[in-house]
Each structure stands twice: as structure tokens, then as C-alpha cells.
Amino acid sequence: MAGKLLREFGSPEAIFNASLTALEAQNLPAPVAQAIHTRQALNDAARELAEVEQSRCRLINWAEDSYPHLLRQIYDPPPLLYVKGNLELLDRHSIAIVGARRPTPYGNQMAERLGRDLAERGLVIVSGPAPGIDSCAHRGALAARKGQGATIGVLGCGIDVIYPKENKKVFAEIEERGAMISEFPLGAFPAPRISPCATGSSQGWR
Q: What number of other Cβ atoms are within 10 A of residue 145's Cβ?
């Protein structure tokens, strides 16, 4: 939704200066249109930026050179990305490895082996934070010989939220040797569905 508004109005300033009628014409829920019109959302954004500055993460928008160029080409890219770690990895050749949360022992072994072997060949491993295949793929990349392994963790929550908590050590290693990214604001907890209107975000990493 944020991306749609930016394309329609051209800039954040134009969005907040738009009339309530113009905002409602974008099929926004009435409370969201009202929050934008009264600049409540602008105040929330200012608080968010202050928290970002105090944290160890970087906030990049889709107009910056550091924004992943392939992500920018999808139908509805997230206007903002929160990043911890190595920004340069976002534009390197990468491959996603995702799968079941409760795989067989063989599945775990293969995910870790694939993560390690592909990382040793120069690919960046991209996966979520879930236990099972996702975590094994990250561990494999981190275990690549000679420190060659690089991996990106894509979060479905705020970048300051460790979920699941048992992956805290893996998260720290990914942040040190790779990157953690999220399109969700700080403090956002994972849920089956988080409304883009509520978070100021658009669609997830694809």
C-alpha cells in the first residue's frame, strides 16, 4: 500500500499534503486515510527514525543505490528495508533455500550441505529464520570453509525482534558474517498476517 501511494502521489510529502478525499480514493481504510491526513503517521515515522538511529540497523529506501536492484523490479517492492550487517550482499548472486519446519534428519543434513556447498562456490544463501530447513541452510553457509560463506536472513517481523528465540545465536552469526533484513517496522512481532496498512509496508521479500 505504501508503494502504491508513493507511485500515485510522487513523494511522502505529497502523500501527507493530500486531501482526505484523495486519500480515500486510493481505497484506503477510513482510519488509515484519517491517520495520514492528520499527520499522525508522520509523527509515528519520526519516532521510528529516531529509534533506527539509536539501533545498529540501516534503513534504505527503493531510490537508493544500495537497495537490491532485482527486488526493485518486482511488481510491488517494499519502499523501505531495515538492514543489519553487510549491505553489499544484497546485490550479490544469491539463491534461496526454504522448506519445512520439521524435516526429516536427512532433510536437515541436505539443507546444511547445500547451504555450505553453494556458499563455498560464491553464492549468498537467502532464507527465513524458521527452525528446520531454513536454519540448516544458514548454518551450512556459516560453516563454509575459509570464511567464504555469506547468508541473508529475511524476517517476517521487526529486525529487532528475535524469533524464534532459540535461533538467537544463529541470528548473531548471520548479522556478523552476512545480513539480516526486514520490511517491517521495529518492534513488529510475527503474525499469520500483518496488515501492510498498519505497518506502512507493502509486500514481502520475494
A: 9
Asked if 168 and 117 sit in the same domain, the reply is: yes
111/164 same-domain check: yes
Cis amide bond preceding 192, omega within 30:
no
Residue 205 within any structural domain of the chain: no
Strands 80-85 and 58-61: antiparallel
**How remote is the C-alpha of 202 from its chain's centroid?**
11
C-alpha cell at 90: 544484497
Answer whether 98's CB lies under 8 Å from 133's CB: yes
pTM (predicted TM-score): 0.78
Burial (0-12, 13-18, 19+ Cβ within 10 Å), 198: middle
Name the domain count of the chain: 2
Q: Domain limits at 46?
A: 1-54
Q: Quick one: DSSP state of residue 188?
A: P
What is the per-residue pLDDT across 18-74, written as a single tens digit (0 to 9) for each?
888 888 888 888 888 888 888 777 777 778 888 888 888 899 988 899 999 989 888
